[in-house]
Amino acid sequence: MTKTLKCFLFAFLFGFFGWNTTANGQSWFDDGLSPAFHKERRQALRALMPENSVAVFFTNPIKNRSNDTDFAFRPNSDFYYLTGFREPNAVLVVFKSPQGFGNGSADEFIFVPARDPRTEQWEGARLGVEGVQEKLGLEAVFLNSEFMKSPAMDLSKFAQVLSPAKSQTEGGRHNATLNGMMEVFYTNNPSPAKPAAMALDKMMNQLRVIKSEEELTILKKAIEISGMAHIEAIKSIQPGVSERAIQGVHEFVHKAMGAEDIGYGSIVGAGNNSCILHYVDNDKRELQDGVILMDVGAEYRGYSGDITRTVPVKGVFSKEEKAIYEIVLKALEAGTEACKVGEDFRDVGLVAKQIIDKGLVDLGIIKEGERHPYFPHGIGHHLGLDVHDRGAYGKLMPGMVLTVEPGIYIPEGSNCDPKWWKIGVRIEDNILITETGNLNLSQFVPRTVADIEKLMKEDGVLQKL
Ligand SMILES: [Mn+2]
């Protein structure tokens, strides 16, 4: 939209309808985590912080997509976890112990954007200072324009200023070059806005790795939606379909069931594309045969599901596809079984790898003891606000939610009989560790050969259009 058009529309809409202050839900979720949850988590963080320290969290930057339009904003997960606030340009400051300011004292400050009719007309309602106090329960709330002016923001008196690694704030490893340039810039042009960077990673890992009942309720909903989408997609697959249409079925079900977003770029790859681990182009059309691998999850109130199913385009597995599939399924079942309190997650990976290695030897795809490239990734990861969630990988504890996702990928040109080429199979479930064992939260999505072939006989939403 051009600036001129924007100005015209603004004048038009503002002139006729005035300023509507009804919140559109962008600022916070009224059915997400509760203010009490966020408050308790800030208290838990405080308990882990060293004496005379302060922790500073910036939410995510806004990323430009094209000319004057931006990517949809998503808050930084740590920031959201501690506050529930979903607007950009915000800073949270958590003190180990209360700090005096004005006539009182507080052990945490939050700095947020000001309310502004012009901006809200375009981008939706903001909470502002009063809104954050009322809806999110934070008490010491200031405008972000006050951040560096506030006398209490002189952080030099603290023994430690904790803040996330700069690369995390700015968007991860793919921004390494940009971040490096910014680092050089900030070194040569010291900015008072940049506190000494010390990673809060370990503390946040410890807090976020165990899910509370309140989080589990939301995470289970995200997984339920993701699973329902898989079932509808599996039913919709038949010869002639495109990867994109199947992606659309997943994301349609997500939206229809109330998910606000996808948890990560949807992966829908058929034939040789099933062998590309993070394939997100999804642009192959007129699928006729082979397998189609779908690694797709919905994001619901910030939490992501992460389910993978691999099914035959024709509705029936070929002999070779079935042979590979059965090995991966066996590895999934053994890996899931091994997910118990006190077990080491790395051992879960070894259990699955041994089954895959033996299966490949039995089929003559590799020789005994041969190193091979057909299972190149880890067995799984923590799942939560981030699809690859925070947390160390060691002994399993109750309240952890992890994925188990073995796979075998044999791309065209591999060093084996060409009859195995273009078969990529991954099966992924979401596992909650309990006191007595585990709960497979994506159990309801069919995964055996028989159950998948049976489900594929049904019509899906694509056939009903
Ligand atoms: Mn995964």
Automatic annotation (TrEMBL):
Signal peptide segment: 1-25
SUPFAM superfamilies linked to this entry: Creatinase/aminopeptidase, Creatinase/prolidase N-terminal domain
Single GO biological process annotation from the record: proteolysis
Family of the protein in this entry: Belongs to the peptidase M24B family.
Domain spans labelled Aminopeptidase P N-terminal: 33-183
Protein name (Swiss-Prot/TrEMBL): Xaa-Pro aminopeptidase
Catalytic activity: Release of any N-terminal amino acid, including proline, that is linked to proline, even from a dipeptide or tripeptide
InterPro entries: Aminopep_P_N (IPR007865), Creatin/AminoP/Spt16_N (IPR029149), Creatinase/aminopeptidase-like (IPR036005), Pept_M24 (IPR000994), Pept_M24_MAP (IPR001714), Peptidase_M24B_aminopep-P_CS (IPR001131), X-Pro_dipept-like (IPR052433)
Enzyme Commission numbers on file: 3.4.11.9
Organism: Rhodonellum psychrophilum GCM71 = DSM 17998
Highest taxon above the source species: Bacteria
Cofactor: Mn(2+)
Class in the EC hierarchy, top level: hydrolase
Entries under Pfam families matching the protein: AMP_N, Peptidase_M24
MF terms (GO), sorted A to Z: manganese ion binding; metalloaminopeptidase activity
Keywords associated with the record: Hydrolase, Manganese, Metal-binding, Metalloprotease, Protease, Signal
